[in-house]
Automatic annotation (TrEMBL):
Residues 1-245 form the Alanyl-transfer RNA synthetases family profile domain. The keyword Transcription does not apply. One of its GO terms (molecular function) is alanine-tRNA ligase activity. It comes from Rhizobium vallis. SMART domains: tRNA_SAD (SM00863). It comes from the Bacteria. The keyword Transferase does not apply. Its cofactor is Zn(2+). This is Alanine--tRNA ligase. One of its GO terms (cellular component) is cytoplasm.
Length: 245
């Protein structure tokens, strides 16, 4: 059954109550609502725990979508207890991990502002993220880092706006990615906006983000790799060169 994905409206919600609606043969758990982000758009799904009424914990190894985007499956680690349908659980997201992913994902959006080329691929990670651009130009990583940190330090607001699937279909140019389509099919699509009145950026994205650019913290471009004649891969890491995150 469709799940109420609470994280879509509150990226900072790390705990909530939910009722088990299905338990799959492989152990996957469906809930009536969840604050756990499901793997999508290059961002890994959340990990954490589901707490039962008696205090025992069901440790989760991943969160993923089912056959459609309105189904979210919470996958326990091997050996974890199996809940019953109808049971009420308290969900606890691994917040330090999620917050790092939020900071990283927002950093990737800032990179797409600094490098305004079509995106051919991306992957958000806890320690390092990558964004691939359809570009042949040569650019220095220190120059990109300086421009990224300028946007971070200006502390622009990051917020969501919602548009309908039809509005997105009528305005395809707002999609920066060449080969990953925005999360459509739920009736509405979230635009991640940076800066007042989207003055810095606005693009469809279903991932989780921080609320202001300063929260991203210190980041740098660790490497720019040539991946074909017209493709460049940028690797983003926390901290500055030589720093610890």
């Amino acid at each position: 059954m469709p799940v109420n994905a609470l994280y879509r409206d509150d990226f900072y919600l790390s705990t909530c109550e939910a009722v088990v609606t299905a338990v799959h043969e492989d152990g996957g758990i469906e809930l009536d609502q969840t604050c756990f982000y499901a793997t999508s758009g290059g961002q890994p799904g959340d990990t954490g725990e589901l707490e039962r009424a008696d205090g025992t914990k069901i440790a989760l190894g991943q969160t993923k979508h089912g056959a459609s985007k309105d189904i979210i499956i919470h996958v326990p680690l091997n050996g974890a207890p199996r809940p019953e349908v109808g049971e009420t659980l308290v969900l606890h997201v691994d917040w330090p991990r999620r917050y790092r992913l939020m900071r990283m994902h927002t950093a990737c959006h800032l990179l797409s502002v600094v490098c305004s080329y079509p995106i051919t691929g991306a992957a958000v990670g806890e320690e390092e993220s990558r964004v691939d651009f359809d570009m042949s130009e040569t650019i220095e990583k220190d120059e990109v880092t300086a421009k990224l940190m300028e946007l971070v330090d200006q502390n622009h607001r990051v917020y969501l706006q919602w548009i309908t699937d039809e509005e997105l279909a009528a305005n395809p140019d707002i999609v920066k990615s060449k080969n990953v389509r925005p999360p459509m099919g739920l009736g509405r699509v979230s635009l991640v906006c940076i800066g007042e009145n989207s003055s810095i950026d606005s693009q469809p994205c279903g991932g989780t983000h921080v609320s202001e650019t300063q929260e991203v913290g210190r980041i740098h471009i660790a490497k720019i790799e040539k991946k074909g004649k017209e493709n460049r891969r940028f690797r983003i890491r926390f901290g500055m060169p030589g720093d610890e995150a």
